[in-house]
Amino acid sequence: MLYDLAIIGAGTAGLSAAIYAARAGLSVLVFEGAMYGGQIIVSPTVENYPGIGMISGADFANNLYAQAEQLGVSFAFETVTALTNAPDKKVLTTDMASYEAKTLILATGAKNRQLGLAGEEKLTGRGISYCATCDGSFFQGKIVAVMGGGNTALEDAEVLSKLCAKVYLIHRRSEFRGEAAQVERLKKLENVEFILDSTIVELQGDTALTGVVVEHLPTKQTRLLALDGLFVAIGQVPQNSAFADLVQTDSHGYIVAGEDCRTNLAGVFAAGDGRTKTVRQLVTAAADGAVAALAAAEYIRSL
Catalytic: which of 4, 134, 156, 288? Predict the structure, then answer.
């Protein structure tokens, strides 16, 4: 069968694209190598999606999936290992079969770079977060730390300083990589403390994070910080390596595509956290999905 649209990735961007494409009358096949929903499924509470006061990440993902399925979207829970661009179609090869589609949306997303410490997976959503904008409000009046030294870490620390009683900003170097002006603003805040030349070597807590052990790298001395929350801001890793030879990516591996979600390859679009963009939030992923799906429908009409 030749589908109108294939979508790689069943996160918020991919499922939103599937919903919009199906409503536009396209036949849609969504590929997902793991569990549908993407990163949001680990969030215990989502409070920043317009029109929804509060919902768990898992329920949000389930609702998207159910809506797409009810509209007739097909799903293949297989990993796409190769992509071939032909003049009139895209051929997608998985670990199980081959499929064909007139257009393609890459909604592969990006994963937060983790610390790689024991207990990190278990404590994610239970004190450990990778998004201060998403989860900062849950730590009102509490003691938190931010790990990282780039602009995201600095921005997270500033956001949290307005909510939390105390914010530790931990960075493994003596100087921050982020903007100097923002560093100076943070220096003036009484509830923000810099811990430089240091890194986190141990997470503490069983069912919830209770603290971290920080090592001062030059001296190897350690100290225990009692914490309610830890925000990890050491970068993201886009999941685009399988397609880097086909579509243009930037130096960090993100697919080059603007707000129209069009890549350098005709009929191929990129949506969500895996494309070049400034803001990566649930609502922007959904917006990307809608834009990419309607662009795919327009492309098909032009054939």
Answer: 134
